[in-house]
Amino acid sequence: MKKLEDIKGIIFDYGGTIDTNSRHWAEVLWGEYEALQVPVSKADFREAYVHGERTLARIPLVKPEHDFHDVLRIKTDIQITYLVEQGKLSEADAAGKAYACKVADACYQYVLNVLQRTRPVVETLAGRYKLVLVSNFYGNIQTILKDFALSDCFSDIIESSVVGVRKPDPAIYRLGVEAMGFPAENILVVGDSFSKDVVPAKTVGCKVAWLKGEGWGNETIDETLPDVIITDLPQLLSYL
Fold it and tell me: Helices marked H in the chain — which ranges?
């Protein structure tokens, strides 16, 4: 195994990386829909998921004080409401079986379980390197990091809704490099999305560890681009 050399700082992605350890959030949510036997197809769920993400990009429903359970409830409320409005789910079922609440609760517990595996990795690396977080998020990432006991690990946070630029625009990673204060070639980026993390991070000159997992949709992948490919965040420690 070839070690990553000359690394002085690490930029972490958050969603899909630290909180789900490589699973796309759409797959996490769909898994809970299936577990709760919500009577909709995956195609209908996908429509509802995309609608929800576009709604949150357009309307600032998430506030800075919202923790991650609040975010999940907002997302699942939008999704279930959409499914009812589109005639894909009966209003009586949606209300009587409290699908939105139950899916949000299950997903929150899922993250708590995953963090038992990923948080120690972040904490270990924070003791050895300067860490910066670069994330597409809703303006409440500080609240979420505190909720999950991660806020002390990062020296700086670059959040899309705060800085006004989103992945996959390489500019957001340039801001991460500036916050780090080291040359890009001495910075390792860790992220789960090939198009939103690997490609823009390499564009600005960083080394990249791709946390390859259960994606969502069709991406064009060039596995020669990342410096390291891992499938479980703790594997990262063996390269550093």
Answer: 25-35, 42-58, 68-85, 91-96, 99-126, 141-147, 160-163, 170-180, 199-203
What's the pTM value of the predicted model, to 2 decimals?
0.93
Residues in the chain: 240
Q: Is the Cβ–Cβ distance between 222 and 203 less than 8 Å? A: no
How far apart CA 150 and CA 127 sit, in angstroms, is 13
Is the alpha carbon torsion for 85, 87, 88, 92 positive or negative?
Answer: positive
How far CA 20 is from CA of 61, 134, 231, in Å, comes to 23, 16, 12
Helix 25-35 vs helix 42-58: crossing angle, to nearest 10: 130
Q: What is the mean pLDDT of each run of 10 residues along the chain (240 residues)?
A: 91 96 94 96 96 93 96 97 96 92 97 98 98 95 96 96 94 97 97 95 97 76 93 97
Structure token digits, residue 71 = 């975010």
* Res 216: pLDDT: 64
Q: At a CB cut-off of 8 Å and minimum separation 6, what does 179 contact? A: 132, 155, 156, 158
24: left (phi over 0), alpha (psi -120 to 50) or beta: beta
Residue 229 has phi, psi (to 5 degrees) of -120, 125
